[in-house]
Amino acid sequence: MFIIYIIIAIIAFGVLIAIHELGHFAAAKLLGVKVNEFAIGMGPKLLQKQGRETLYSLRAIPLGGFCAMEGEDEDVPDPRSFTAQRRWKRVVILAAGSVMNFLLGLVIVIAIFANMDHMGGTTITAFDDAFPRAGASSLTVGDRIISIDGEHLYYSDDFSTFMSLTGERADIVLERGGQKVELKDYYLVRRPMSDGTMKYGISFDRIEGTATRRLKYSGYTAVNFVRLTRISLTQLVTGRAGLRDLSGPVGIVSIINDVGQTQQPVSVKLKNIAYFVAVIAVNLAVMNMLPIPALDGGRIFFALITGFIELITRRHINPKYEGYIHAAGFALLLGLMALVMVSDVLKIING
To answer: Are 277 and 97 in contact (CB under 8 A)?
Structure first.
């Protein structure tokens, strides 16, 4: 049975990549750029079909893909080449892949929450007596929590999410009787649960799940995915997270397979997998927009920088030099991916 969830994971990767490349492809076609090949997957071609000007191909390794546009990294005489386009067009084409990934994640969470009856607000309604509180400056019934360590709370789910990232203490901003109150360095008793989550002994108000509110909840969920990606990147930069905390394709397939092996109804497992895929879709959208060579964000960054330099110097910069930088960045990214893959394999072996 486990092979089914591995297949689901591989298909999910293919969909994420296809949607991303479709974004580039659609934007390029819409803006009149010549696309030489649109490929899903990497490696040898399994299927191919030549269109009027574009070769469509399906390749053997479902962990990549590309939209090969005319003249991406070099000046060519074709007026429909990528580098011949105005700068705003190039930025739109480059950003379109990430936009599509984000929209895919949003659509998935909308589908997941389509039948949600209620959602938790951020106003405290009760406390569990088994959880002691921190004296007179403590939280009280009726408080509406606004933020935790600067992260705004939209729903009660956010409370658990951001409290779990703070350690033992946090700065909490709340509304009490129409006034804003700040609890500095606040300690809140927490207890680990069997599913790995933390319990805080606090109950929040319930909000009826109308169609409009479900859409709003889905939108804020997608925004939270972006916030969590930002926090994860910050932890990597500051050293709070390391290589073992990263997961590549192998690790993600393993996680999806683990979800499939849980003792839950199939419908629940598929829903959890869909939620995880939505997280990955939004994560890919954010990561691809980072100003790192070889990523879409890096290409956008260089498009803006070279535009500024050309404006000042009145001299055209040959895009082949930018191509060299992206090639070097791509090689480094491949090296990082190899390290992450080895780490994922070792985690699986070591349990």
So the answer is: no
Per-residue confidence (pLDDT) for residue 195, from 0 to 100: 67
Distance CA 261, CA 269 (A): 9
CA distance 203 to 122: 9
Q: Which of 238, 224, 340, 338 is nearest to 279 (CA)?
A: 224
Domains and CATH numbers, the chain: 2-112+279-350 (no CATH), 118-208 (2.30.42.10)
Q: Which positions are annotated as active-site residues?
A: 21
Q: What is the pLDDT of residues 109-159, one digit of tens each?
A: 999 999 999 999 999 999 888 777 654 458 889 999 999 999 999 999 999
| Pick from 107, 64, 34: nearest CA to 281 | 107
The model carries a pTM of 0.87
Question: Could you identify the residue written with the tokens 């849980």?
Answer: 262
Would you state the structure tokens that stand for residue 154, as one six-digit string?
């939209």
Instruction: Give one DSSP letter per residue of 160-219, joined into a string.
Output: HHHHTTSTTEEEEEEEETTEEEEEEEEE---EE-TTS-EE--EEEEEEE--HHHHHHHHH
